[in-house]
Specification:
The complex is a heterotrimer of chains A (about 375), B (about 325) and C (about 290).
Chain A: E1 4-13, E2 16-26, E3 31-35, H1 42-50, E4 57-62, E5 65-66, E6 77-80, H2 92-102, H3 107-121, H4 136-148, E7 154-158, H5 166-183, E8 186-191, H6 194-200, E9 203-208, E10 211-216, H7 218-223, H8 228-233, E11 240-249, E12 252-257, E13 260-263, H9 266-274, E14 280-285, E15 290-294, E16 302-311, E17 315-322, E18 325-332, E19 342-347, E20 353-356
Helix pairs in contact in A: 2-3, 2-4, 3-4
Chain B: H1 2-16, H2 34-63, E1 65-66, E2 76-77, H3 81-87, H4 90-121, H5 127-135, H6 142-153, H7 159-166, H8 179-208, H9 211-220, H10 224-253, H11 256-261, H12 273-282, H13 287-324
Antiparallel strand pairs in B: 1-2
Helix pairs in contact in B: 2-13, 3-13, 4-8, 4-10, 4-12, 6-8, 8-10, 9-10, 10-13, 12-13
Chain C: H1 12-43, H2 47-50, H3 73-80, H4 84-115, H5 121-133, H6 136-149, H7 156-180, H8 184-192, H9 197-225, H10 228-232, H11 241-246, H12 256-276, H13 278-285
Helix pairs in contact in C: 1-12, 3-12, 4-7, 4-9, 5-7, 7-9, 8-9, 9-12
The chains are: A alpha+beta (about 375), B mainly alpha (about 325), C mainly alpha (about 290).
């Protein structure tokens, strides 16, 4: 139940910079996901929020209170750690009761709250066990239980489900989101898995090399990435990038590649001119926004050659060689031919992204 | 969850009906090369048996005889005389008592100081260099340490004697000749040599305390003291247990400094059981009686060894694997 | 990750504690180093200087400790009149010999014990560790009688064998732990590549070589520092440094200068060896139970 404001925060470890000039406001009851590859500064940010790491420069506010110099116990936060960090010598019950005990909560109140949290997480039969007797998923639930027995101002999650197997992970994504909506607590969730961010968060902050790249809703991040990094990091399979040149002709602006030419819409053209784009650009298109048909003589405009096909059950991914470059196309599964066979692909030009080839900044 | 998946696996196998092998192949592949490993093991095992099992048999033989060292005389069967005499041997009983008193003193001081040193040194700027310096006394032969402390305690030119006098703890007389002080003087020597080992063990333990547990505890609302006592210390227990067991065993393995400094005196104040055993066997050469005493000491060793193997197999192993995850 | 420091927030209590802990550290430092310092300093003092002490209660007078003319006379006397050269050699032969026997036989056995699974393995290991833990005096009682009847008392081979009673089980036990940490998969991979089992074993030797080297040093250390075995079983023909030092104590007068010099001679090499194998020291002294 708090607004978290990160204001101009820098973090250095010795001479190494981990976080650069970060400004971020997390709204009350919002589920904010900080997304980025390892070493991008997301964990440092979270640990600074928790008070487990000093802030090199800048301020962090919970509501209007500056918390820079408050130790973790005075910040009224709850955190779930990547490796769960359960106390091995304590039972599940004792683990969950610990934060309450340290705050001198009456015994019956502890009992009531731990039982309730255990019920929510469906671990009530396990309360008497020690962490070594638990499976990964159960450990993780216990760790979450330890966080939710209190009603903290802020939940902090540090890759809480990274170590679970894929099936359990997808299950926990749903549960965590549900839990957060239920408890209505401001949440900061750090992950390197874009799928977790996309599926759970209200807003996502994408970080790379200590710098905030883009802040927005999952829909914005996916459909309007602000630069090449965000575009490439979010989405699975990843976006295709192709180096092209721009050509002005009487019909309008055209993107030229050794394998194809694409005419841009007027709106797209005006965005490029407004951004005074150079002749060389990098275009990006998601595999979903490409169409494909087998054989050399179809209706789609661009000829290509199949490199490999990867069936995924209902869908398939086809890697196609187009004018010396390779692109991935996602399509419904069907007869496609083998490596070396000809095919044709089509671009959904509306879904095209164009980036500056040097800076990576998106024109659209 | 994992269990569920396993259950499903078993169930579906049952449904599909797993075939069991109903015939045995005529010949299996080569036996696993156990003989190769046996041959590697054998020389060491044989040698060890020759120098430990064979003497053990001898020891038992000796406990049952009046052993004669002079050539030509044969040992006299004594039955359980050697043991029954121990029952009425006041020095024997006192030796045990003194041993436990000595060990209790050594261990409590060493553990207390050692843990304190480790906690202070951990993540200290000078940790590396200080640890290296603190290691030095451990490398010294206990007998040399005995001499060194004897020198320091000397009533006419010993620096520690002077120090104790100067701060008013000691009037005059001698440290090692005093029934009260002698024990502490010997304990101090052991503490000087071996506290660093406890500190090192504790330090190794502290490095293994999972950082995330400490952090989780801080988030839960603990201050630094709470953090140490309820997270770090439980993680340290196996290490401290090992330290205690090892030091306790060493307390009666090494009596060199006691032999040098007091020889068990004054008035048997420092005559711990191994020292008494040394006197009986190698001063009075009553080897039969000595063997009986040695036998009781060995029994204690075996008990402690048992405790040690249990400790070895349990918590440390778990600790290691948990860190590897 | 593990090396990351826990954040410490300032508080008056913490500052006070920090002060106290620095004081304690200084005290412990002095307590540890002072005896060593006095030993070294005294070994260079002649009789008169060694007996200089300040007046009782005169703490300003501690400078007396360093107020002397250094003399190497004690060292010279040790190696000429007292024949410490011979004892040094005896110490070296006995400890090195036992270390060589123990580690060479021990490493083979340790490898086998690490790789083999058989009934009674636990009991075998238990026997090994309790052999190592047995009190030296107790072991010596029967050993003395046996060695006496086979003429081994007072000889270097006898002493080597005596040291092997604690060094061999030590080597087996600790090297087994060492081999346990080398994944068997490496040998399996080597066998897949076409090695024989023996070649595969040889292949992993470089992985354990530093450890084996360190444990040779530790075995030397244990033998070198022994006094009990040396005084009883080595007495006479195989006198080692600790025993020779103890013999400097004569009923009429204890030659402190020389004893301190002998202490330096005995201790300094071991301290260097200790520094050399610093990484393995804790593992070695705790029977491998604790690793740094």
């Amino acid at each position: 139940m708090a607004t978290v404001t990160i204001s101009d925060v820098w973090k250095y470890y010795g001479k190494t910079m981990a976080v650069k000039e970060l400004n971020l406001e997390i709204k009350n009851n919002e589920f904010m996901c900080i997304l980025g590859p390892s070493g991008c500064g997301k964990s440092s940010t979270l640990r600074m929020l928790a008070g487990l790491e000093f802030i090199s420069s800048g301020d962090i506010y919970f509501d209007d209170v500056r918390v820079n110099d408050l130790p973790p116990r005075d910040r009224d936060i709850a955190m779930v750690f990547e490796n769960y960090a359960l106390y091995p010598h304590k039972t599940v019950y004792e683990n969950m009761a610990n934060p309450l005990k340290l705050r001198r909560t009456p015994k019956d109140e502890i009992e009531r709250r731990v039982r309730r949290a255990a019920e929510i997480l469906e671990i009530d039969p396990l309360l008497g066990r020690k962490p070594v007797e638990l499976s990964g998923g159960q450990k993780q639930r216990t760790a979450i239980g330890r966080a939710i027995v209190r009603e903290p101002k802020v939940f902090l999650f540090d890759e809480p489900i990274a170590h679970l197997d894929a099936k359990l992970r997808s299950h926990m994504r749903g549960e965590l989101k549900h839990l957060q909506r239920d408890l209505e607590t401001t949440t900061v969730y750090v992950t390197h898995d874009q799928l977790e961010g996309m599926s759970m968060a209200d807003r996502i902050a994408v970080m790379h090399e200590g710098v905030l790249q883009q802040l927005g809703t999952p829909e914005e991040i996916y459909n309007r990435p602000s630069n090449e990094f965000v575009a490439g990091f979010v989405g699975e399979p990843p976006m295709n990038f192709l180096d092209c040149t721009l050509e002005q002709s009487n019909v309008g602006l055209t993107v030229v590649h050794s394998g194809f030419r694409l005419a841009l819409s007027d709106q797209q053209a005006s965005l490029l001119t407004a951004g005074s784009a150079e002749a060389n650009v990098r275009i990006g298109i998601r595999p979903d926004n490409l169409a494909i048909e087998p054989g050399a003589d179809g209706t789609l405009e661009v000829p290509g050659e199949i490199f490999v096909t990867e069936p995924l059950g209902g869908d398939m991914i086809v890697e196609v060689t187009v004018g010396g470059d390779r692109v991935m196309v996602k399509t419904k599964i069907g007869p496609m031919g083998g490596p070396g066979d000809p095919c044709r692909i089509g671009f959904d030009v509306d879904k095209l992204h164009v980036f500056d080839i040097n800076t990576g900044v998106a024109y659209f | 969850m994992a269990a569920n998946i396993a259950d499903i696996g078993v169930a579906s196998e049952a449904v599909r009906g797993v075939r069991t092998i109903d015939h045995h192949p005529e010949s299996f592949n080569h036996r696993p090369p156990r003989y190769y490993l046996l041959w590697l093991m054998l020389p060491a095992i044989l040698l060890l048996a020759a120098i430990s099992l064979y003497p053990l048999v001898w020891l038992i033989y000796m406990t049952l005889h009046e052993v004669q060292l002079a050539p030509g005389k044969s040992d006299v069967w004594a039955g359980i005389d050697n043991f029954s005499r121990l029952a009425s041997d006041k020095k024997f009983a006192r030796g045990w008592l003194t041993l436990f008193k000595y060990s209790a003193l050594c261990l409590s001081v060493e553990i207390g100081l050692g843990v304190l040193v480790a906690v202070i040194l951990n993540n200290n700027r000078f940790e590396k260099i200080l640890v290296t310096i603190f290691l030095m006394p451990m490398m010294m032969a206990p007998v040399i340490a005995g001499f060194l402390y004897m020198f320091l305690y000397n009533g006419t030119f010993g620096w520690y004697f002077w120090l104790l006098q100067s701060i008013g703890l000691l009037e005059s007389g001698s440290i090692l000749g005093n029934k009260f002080w002698a024990m502490f003087a010997i304990v101090a020597t052991d503490v000087w040599q071996w506290t660093p080992l406890i500190a090192l063990i504790t330090l190794a333990g502290l490095k293994r305390v999972p950082q995330e547990q400490l952090e989780a505890h801080m988030v839960d609302g603990a201050g630094p003291f709470r953090n140490f006592f309820s997270v770090a210390l439980p993680n340290l227990y196996p290490f401290l247990l090992i330290a205690i067991l090892l030091r306790f065993m060493d307390n009666f393995r090494f009596i060199d400094h006691i032999l040098i400094m007091t020889g068990g005196g004054p008035a048997n104040a420092t005559k711990i059981l191994p020292t008494y055993l040394f006197d009986v066997s190698f001063k009075f050469f009553e080897l039969g009686r000595g063997a009986a005493i040695a036998f009781t000491l060995l029994l204690l060793t075996i008990l402690l060894g048992l405790a040690l193997t249990i400790v070895f197999e349990d918590p440390t192993r778990k600790l290691r694997t948990e860190r590897e995850d | 990750m593990a090396s990351r420091e826990i954040v410490r927030y300032r508080s008056p209590l913490r500052t006070a504690l920090q002060g106290l802990s620095i004081l304690f550290l200084i005290f412990f430092f002095v307590w540890t180093v002072l005896p060593l310092l006095i030993m070294v300093v005294s070994s260079f003092k002649d009789l008169l200087d060694a007996f200089q002490l300040p007046e009782v209660g005169d703490f300003g007078g501690v400078g007396v400790m360093f107020d002397f003319k250094p003399t190497g006379a004690h060292y010279v006397e040790l190696f000429t009149e007292k024949h410490f050269g011979v004892y040094l050699r005896n110490s070296l032969i006995a400890s090195l010999g036992s270390a060589a026997v123990s580690v060479s036989l021990g490493s083979m056995a340790a490898y086998a014990l690490s790789r083999a699974e058989f009934r009674g393995k636990r009991d075998l290991l238990f026997w090994i560790i309790s052999t190592r833990m047995a009190p030296v005096v107790a072991v010596m009682v029967p050993l003395y009688v046996i060695f006496r009847s086979s003429g081994l008392v007072g000889t270097l081979p006898g002493l080597i064998l005596a040291y092997t009673t604690f060094n061999l089980p030590f080597a087996i036990w600790i090297l087994k732990g060492f081999f346990d940490n080398v994944p068997y998969a490496i040998e399996e991979a080597a066998q897949c590549d076409g090695c024989t089992r023996w070649q595969a074993f040889r292949l992993i030797i470089p992985l354990v070589a530093p450890g084996i080297g360190a444990f040779i040093v530790l075995c030397v250390l244990f033998g070198w520092n022994d006094f009990l075995f040396a005084s009883i079983i080595g007495s006479g023909g195989a006198k080692t440094l600790p025993v020779a030092t103890a013999e400097l104590v004569q009923p009429v007068k204890i030659q402190w200068g020389m004893i301190m010099a002998a202490g330096v001679v005995t201790t300094v090499p071991m301290m260097f060896l200790g520094l050399l194998i610093r990484r393995y020291l804790v593992a070695g002294l705790t029977m491998g139970a604790v690793r740094e």
